[in-house]
Amino acid sequence: MEFNPGIDIRPATNPMGFAYGSDVFGPQAELRRLDDIRGSLMNPRCEGPDVVYAIAMDVGKHHHRQLLHGMHLLYGVVTYAAGRLGREPVRSQGHIHKVSSRCGRSTPEVYEIWSGKAVIYLQEYAEDRPGRCFAVEAHPGDVVIVPPDWVHATVSACPDEPLTFGAWCDRDYGFVYDGVRRHNGIAWFPVYNGQNELEWIANPRYQPSELICKKPGDYTALGICKGLSIYRTFEASPETFRYVPDPQTKEQVWQTFEP
Question: Cβ-count burial of 101 within 10 angstroms (0-12 exposed, 13-18 middle, 19+ buried)?
Answer without folding.
Answer: exposed
